[in-house]
Design a protein that fits this description.
Blueprint: H1 2-17, H2 49-56, E1 68-71, E2 76-78, E3 84-89, E4 98-106, E5 112-116, E6 120-123, E7 129-139, E8 147-148, E9 156-160, E10 166-171, E11 174-176, E12 181-188, E13 195-198, E14 200-202, E15 205-208, E16 211-216, E17 223-226, E18 228-231, E19 234-235, E20 237-238, E21 241-245, E22 261-268, E23 271-277, E24 286-294, E25 300-305, E26 309-313, E27 318-330, E28 335-341, E29 345-349
Parallel strand pairs: 2-9, 10-20, 11-21
Antiparallel strand pairs: 1-3, 3-6, 4-5, 4-7, 7-8, 7-9, 10-12, 12-16, 13-14, 13-18, 15-16, 17-21, 18-19, 22-23, 23-26, 24-25, 24-27, 27-28, 27-29
């Protein structure tokens, strides 16, 4: 019996030599409640002819029935970044040194082996592609890392889809109607087969997985257009839009106000009476601004009035300058925007003793 056990351990060791035992925690982290056990592969020497002959006289014990895979069903499809939880059942109650061996492998990759106490295991962060998985019951012994206790289960498969493209921004964000615009779209998961639409389908140029370029035609009507992307994985997610603005309408230049024309002044002792004419009509918030200065000083407003005549009291002899402006404003706030101004006229005054 010792020789038969040694022969079985040798055969199991040879079968394990053909498998690659990997565990990648970054790819497939176990759940917080998962009991995980992993034993590295140890080479076992080939059996001797005597051991082989002796083992044939003592056949291996009958294996347990195969584990029944439950979910996901074979052929299931999942979106990119989905967490896939594999589940199975088996009537056998695991002993302290017994485990479920979960084997997961991609089409073109080496298998990943997980040794578990639970009958489920979540897989996250899987790359797009097709995966297969199978489970069996194994026992850890002193002579062999793991010995199969059950028949091999069915091999189920599932597929992780391609990621959908995402748009984060577009630059520039607008153009004028009738003007084409070269735009750059920024996002994630762009591919060369991706379609881009801004109002109309556009010919997109692939730069990298996060950048594409295109030209918005001048034929788009004014309005706001979503930046829409799609790929073989389906319609993308976008948070950007592009605006076509109407060209600004030309604003007619207002006709300038004609300036008032000075009609002379009369000086009577200390008072100067200014007179002027104007062809226009003042609005309610428009005024004549009588502006008087002394010597070379610029004239300043001394009164805002509606009439075309104003008498101003002179106080110091000397040379004076005067002009009449038209302004728009609010007397209560003491502000008035100048709209037009007359020519300036200079006069001299020698004091109140002067006769007219």
């Amino acid at each position: 019996m010792a020789m038969a056990g040694k022969s079985l351990a040798t055969l199991v060791g040879l079968s394990l030599a053909t498998m690659t035992v990997l565990y990648n925690p970054g790819c497939c982290p176990p759940s917080p409640t998962t009991t995980f056990h992993l034993t590295p592969y140890t080479p076992v020497s080939a059996p001797t002819p005597a051991e082989t002959l002796h083992s044939t006289a003592h056949p291996a014990p009958t294996l347990l029935p195969a584990v029944a895979l439950k979910e996901p069903e074979s052929g299931a499809r999942f979106d990119y970044e989905s967490t896939v939880t594999l589940r199975w059942t088996h009537p056998h109650v695991l002993q302290a040194n017994e485990f479920y061996r979960l084997r997961v492998w991609a089409e073109d990759g080496d298998p990943l082996l997980f040794y578990l106490k639970e009958n489920y295991f979540p897989l996250a962060d899987l790359s797009p592609g097709e995966y297969r998985w199978a489970v069996c019951v194994v026992r850890s012994t002193a002579q062999d890392p793991y010995v199969d206790l059950s028949e091999g289960s069915s091999r189920y498969r599932f597929r992780i889809g391609l990621p959908r493209p995402m748009v984060h921004a577009v630059s520039p964000t607008n153009t004028l109607q009738g003007v084409s615009a070269a735009v750059t779209v920024y996002g994630e998961h762009f591919t060369r087969t991706m379609a881009l639409t801004i109002g109309v389908p556009l010919q997109a140029t692939f730069v990298n997985s996060g950048t594409i370029t295109a030209t918005v035609p001048p034929s788009l009507d004014a309005g706001e257009y979503p930046v829409v992307v799609s790929s073989p994985a389906g319609a993308g997610i976008s948070s950007a839009s592009f605006t076509v603005m109407q060209p600004p309408t030309s604003v007619p230049t207002p006709t300038p106000y004609p300036p008032p024309e000075l009609a002379g002044l009369d000086i009577l002792r200390c008072n100067a009476t200014f007179k002027w004419t104007w062809s226009g009509t003042l609005a309610d918030d428009e005024w004549f601004a009588v502006r008087v200065g002394r010597g070379s000083d610029p004239p300043h407003s001394v009164a805002w009035i509606k009439e075309r005549v104003f008498t101003f009291t002179l106080r110091e002899p000397g040379d004076y300058v005067w002009e009449i402006g038209i302004c728009r404003g609010d007397l209560a706030e003491a502000r008035c925007e100048q709209l037009a101004v007359s020519e300036r006229e200079v006069f001299s005054w020698r004091g109140c003793t002067d006769l007219p």
